[in-house]
Design goal:
By secondary structure, this protein is α/β, with parallel strands linked by helices. It is built from 9 helices and 6 strands. The protein has 2 domains: 3-123, Response regulator (Rossmann fold, 3-Layer(aba) Sandwich), CATH 3.40.50.2300; 138-192, Winged helix-like DNA-binding domain superfamily/Winged helix DNA-binding domain (Arc Repressor Mutant, subunit A, Orthogonal Bundle). The two termini are 34 Å apart.
Length: 197
């Protein structure tokens, strides 16, 4: 029997998920947002986390990244209504091992839990993920980390002993490489891929 912490901002949905998993698995706690999820995982140290993506205060994807910084070995499944590839890729990049669509939960969630607990990955059949990461150079990563800390191009340039124009060039190159349309998307990429450590 494994110990599980659930997160969903709709209690009725979370209770439905719990009923699918019990009595084979033990539900230790149900969080209603990402911040609460992080706290419950610290308290209970579960074998597995099952989290929604769209939640108040902190999204599921942000919570996954936070949990992986706290405990790299914790296993995580996203249970969501989002079928879009970018959501699945963000969840996997942040550290999730499973991605299950809510309308498939009654048929597939138990199988997903069993696979992920064995160290395997589980994706709903209608979800596609490109797991190949674009390769950023060490200089690009240095620039990205500083930009993600809220520093201006001038401040980054001063810190890395390069020109502001070079900083802007690296920023543009990275955005093109990862298909980011805005600086915010670029910074989200840094967070999702653990480049902030």
């Amino acid at each position: 029997m494994s110990n599980i912490v659930l997160a969903d901002d709709h209690l009725i949905v979370a209770q439905g998920i719990a009923s699918i998993l019990q009595p084979e698995h033990r539900i230790l706690a149900i969080a209603k947002n990402g911040l609460e999820l992080v706290e419950f995982v610290k308290q209970h140290e579960p074998d597995l986390v099952i989290t929604d993506i769209s939640m108040p205060d902190m999204t599921g994807i942000a919570a996954i990244a936070a949990l992986k910084r706290i405990n790299k070995t914790v296993k995580i499944i996203c249970l969501t209504m989002h079928e879009e590839q970018e959501y699945a890729e963000s969840a996997i990049a942040a550290g999730a091992q499973g991605y299950v669509l809510k309308h498939e939960a009654s048929e597939n969630l138990v199988e997903a839990v069993n696979q992920v607990l064995k160290g395997e990955t589980y994706l709903s059949t209608s979800v596609t993920v490109n797991t190949e990461k674009p390769q950023l150079s060490s200089r690009q990563i240095s620039v990205l980390r500083l930009l993600a800390q809220g520093k201006s191009a001038r401040q980054v340039a001063d810190e890395l002993f390069i020109s502001p124009r070079t900083v802007e060039f690296h920023k543009y190159s990275m955005m093109k490489l990862i298909s980011a349309k805005t600086s915010a998307e670029l910074i989200q990429y840094a967070i999702n891929h653990g480049l902030m450590d």
